Every structure is written in C-alpha cells, then in structure tokens.
Amino acid sequence: xxxxxxxxxxxxxxxxxxxxxxxxxxxxxxxxxxxxxxxxxxxxxxxxxxxxxxxxxxxxxxxxxxxxxxxxxxxxxxxxxxxxxxxxxxxxxxxxxxxxxxxxxxxxxxxxxxxxxxxxxxxxxxxxxxxxxxxxxxxxxxxxxxxxxxxxxxxxxxxxxxxxxxxxxxxxxxxxxxxxxxxxxxxxxxxxxx
Length: 194
Fold this sequence. Notes:
alpha/beta, 7-stranded antiparallel β-sheet
C-alpha cells in the first residue's frame, strides 16, 4: 500500500547537513522548505527537522498542534538531551542511520490516515533472527509494543514462528531475544516481513 504525502510540508533547519534528507523527502512527494533560522514568521508545517545547531529554533517554527519535531544529531550528549527535551522534540535520530529506517520514519511522521492501535518507533539496528535452525541477519526497521518490522532479508510466510535477537543499547555484544510469528510480508523499500 502506497502512502500519499504529497500535500505535506516539511521544514529543514540546517546549514547543508540534511541534503540527503531533502532528496529523500522530495522522492516521497512532500514539499520541502529550508532555513538557517526560524525568524520571519514561517508558515505552518507538518514536520520540522533540525540539526543540533538549530534545536532552539525548532519550537518557534509552527503553530500547528500536530506538527512533528525531529532532531537529527551526529552524537549523543547530556547537554543536547536537556536541550531537545526543553524544545519539544518528538524524536531524536542519531547518525549514522540506515536509509530504509529514515524513509519509514519520514513516512510515519507524515502519515495522517487512520491511526494505528499502537505507536511504532523507527529503529534502524542490525539484528539476527532465527526461524527453525538457520540464523539470519536483517535490519530492525521499526518496533512497537505489539511487533516489529524486519527488512533487508527474504520474506517469510505468514504464520512462521521466529525469534529475533536485539542487541542491548549499552553493550552491542549482549542481546535479548523476543519470540513471535510472521503476520505479513513487506515489499517496496526493502523486502522483509512484520
């Protein structure tokens, strides 16, 4: 199912660092505007994406109540965390991140259709999964309290039992496993399953 985001407006607050995101957003069909500051009474946007240098500007851009605010950072630091909490950022993406995960994140942020039962979070972490005796690798594209989506692997048939090993954030050598079953195949941006 294709998601139509052609009527959505995205503002990028950056100084050239988000050129790759601009190209991706344009391929999705959304309208893109760029600025180096939030001065001048910018029009309402559906999504605002800012770099670390422009975190203070992110809350001054739009008056829409449902505007999404994403910070794209090159590193994680205590002072940056305090700043993005104060400015009302909804999601923080720390680079590098897989392009498929970014695409899914943007589609989710711009989607305004029927609400899902549970919120999904874009992840973009390499994981291992097992179905039967064979272990394989995939990219954990998104995660919710009810399931996940794996891409970059061959789709498995619905109903197939699997175990996904997810690495711990603090120590990538350790992981925890979650069991479940395949509910659907994923095609398009990257083959896989949910």
